[in-house]
Design brief:
By secondary structure, this protein is an alpha/beta fold. The protein folds into four domains: 4-18 and 177-322, Molybdenum Cofactor Biosythetic Enzyme, Chain A (3-Layer(aba) Sandwich), CATH 3.40.980.10; 22-43 and 142-175, Molybdopterin biosynthesis moea protein, domain 2 (Alpha-Beta Complex), CATH 3.90.105.10; 48-137, Molybdopterin biosynthesis moea protein, domain 3 (Molybdopterin biosynthesis moeA protein, domain 3), CATH 2.170.190; 330-402, MoeA, C-terminal, domain IV (Beta-clip, Beta Barrel). The chain is 18% helix and 29% strand. The strands form eight sheets. Strands 7-4-6-5-9-8 form a six-stranded mixed beta sheet, with no helix packed on it. The chain has a six-stranded mixed beta sheet with strand order 16-13-17-21-20-18, with helices on both faces. A five-stranded mixed barrel has the order 22-25-24-26-28. Strand 24 (345-354) and strand 25 form a beta hairpin. Helix 1 packs across helix 6, helix 3 (205-215) packs parallel to helix 6 (303-322) and helix 4 packs across helix 5. It is elongated. It starts with a helix and ends with a strand. The model has no long low-confidence stretch (mean pLDDT 96). Bound molecules: adenosine monophosphate and magnesium ion. Adenosine monophosphate binds at residues 184, 186, 188-189, 201, 203-206, 250-252, 254, 256, 300-303, 371.
């Protein structure tokens, strides 16, 4: 049976890069950038005043003790943010507002709180230490025109949107959002909104998997429910394979008599890459590749297994296809001892805390078998406990994966 590392490697090796498309910046948050963003102009584009006050020339400010007028300058004009640059006349000052360009010939700002205006003259507080260049954010001091600001592979964040908008860009090249089908299999499943009988169960994996994919930015995800009937399964999966590039099934991959998924996928020429991983939960997972390179993930139906396998393998594959730059692995220290005897990797759901030393602490949350999805609501992710170890003392460093954040 494959190890978790070998399974992830096999999944990533089966992925091909998704195409690039051009979209409006307004819809780009969360998408993966496929171009370099370079600065349109110097930043700031001019010497930017950072205080409301007066602007003048330090050379007009007479430092000799015996000059009684050293603190008083006649106001020549007012210049606000967005106003054209005024040329300062010698011996004067200009009333200036935050965000305005520094007037020509000026090199000094005194904040409005440190002046008094009487009869068109600004008198500077005698205690105030006037300094050349203070409260001026110099042109190009953040970056120069043409500077490399964002790299392909960046997952576009709200902060990147500021950078992109500041470059005057309205459209971006990003990785296409793949067409994904989430498919729930099982005769026992009844969707919310439908009447239900005692022997049936609510279909919860489908909506949860669609939501998990959505929280990672995958929006073109549709759900289908197929009963455990070979002919129906074959026809519906044939159609999904024609229409979508990624199939995420849940249920029907174990050893039960109604577990038809692997045989039907084989009939549809989906090449099996692996079946079963030495892990808990999620051991029965099946993975294969369709004739057009479609990725087919058949996850176990148990809700905890389905969610862990989706987070661990499906989302990793979609990120790989988008060529998103990889974040370094995250670690957390176990908050309590964990004992896990089977010779399997354990994906242990955890609630996260931080301690006063600034460490991330993972509190194991017990799930009552892999069907207990309700316990997962209290968790932030899961930690990976190595296959060849059975005792994991409190304080052990573990690899952490958060459900939502990468
Ligand atoms: P299976 O892998 O099909 O044998 O299913 C394992 C268990 O998970 C069974 O108890 C199923 O009823 C349950 N299950 C399968 N699919 C879903 C689903 N979409 N939502 C909730 N539970 C499911
Ligand atoms: Mg089933």
């Amino acid at each position: 049976m494959l190890t978790t590392a070998a399974a992830l490697e096999a999944v990533l090796a089966a992925v091909s890069s998704s195409p690039t498309e051009t979209i409006d910046v307004a819809t780009a948050t969360g998408r993966v950038l496929r171009q370099v963003i370079r600065a349109e102009r110097d930043q700031p584009p001019f010497d930017r005043v950072t205080m409301d006050g007066i602007a003048f020339s330090f050379s007009d400010y007479d430092l000799s003790e015996d000059n009684k007028n050293r603190y008083t300058l006649p106001i020549q004009a007012m210049q606000a943010a967005g106003d054209k640059v005024v040329t300062l006349e010698s011996g004067h000052c200009i009333e200036i507002m935050t965000g305005a360009a520094l007037p020509e010939n000026a090199d000094c700002i005194v904040p409005v709180e440190r002046i008094t205006v009487v009869d068109g003259n600004a008198k500077i507080d005698s205690e105030y230490e006037v300094k050349k260049g203070r409260f001026v954010h110099p042109r190009g001091s953040d970056y120069a025109k043409g500077a490399h600001l964002l790299t392909a592979g960046k997952v576009i964040s709200p902060l990147d949107i500021a950078v992109i908008a500041s470059c005057g860009i309205t459209e971006l090249e990003v990785a296409t959002d793949p067409l994904v089908r989430v498919i729930s299999t099982g005769n026992e499943l009844v969707a919310a909104g439908q009447p239900i009988e005692a022997h049936q169960i609510r279909l919860s994996n489908g909506p949860a998997l669609v939501s998990l994919l959505g929280s990672h930015g995958y929006r073109r995800v549709e759900h289908d429910h197929i009963v455990d009937d070979v002919d129906t399964l074959r026809e519906r999966l044939r159609q999904h394979l024609q229409e979508a590039s990624v199939l995420v099934l849940s249920g029907g991959v174990s050893m039960g008599k109604a577990d038809y998924v692997p045989e039907v996928l084989a009939e549809l020429d989906v090449e099996v890459i692996f079946h079963k991983i030495s892990q808990r939960p999620g051991k029965p997972m099946w993975f294969g590749k369709g004739p057009r390179g479609q990725l087919v993930f058949a996850l176990p139906g148990n809700p905890v297994s389905a969610l862990v396998c989706c987070r661990q393998y499906v989302i990793s594959a979609l990120k790989e296809a988008s060529a998103a730059s990889k974040n370094p692995p995250q670690f957390a220290a176990l908050a309590s001892d964990v004992s896990f005897k089977p010779s399997l990797t354990c994906f242990q759901p955890v609630k996260l805390f931080s301690n006063a030393a600034g460490q991330t602490i993972a509190m194991p949350v017990k799930t009552n078998t892999s069907g207990d999805f309700a316990s997962l609501s209290a968790t932030d992710g899961y930690v990976e406990l190595a296959k060849d170890q059975t005792e994991f003392p409190a304080g052990s460093a573990t690899v952490l994966r958060r459900w939502i954040v990468d």
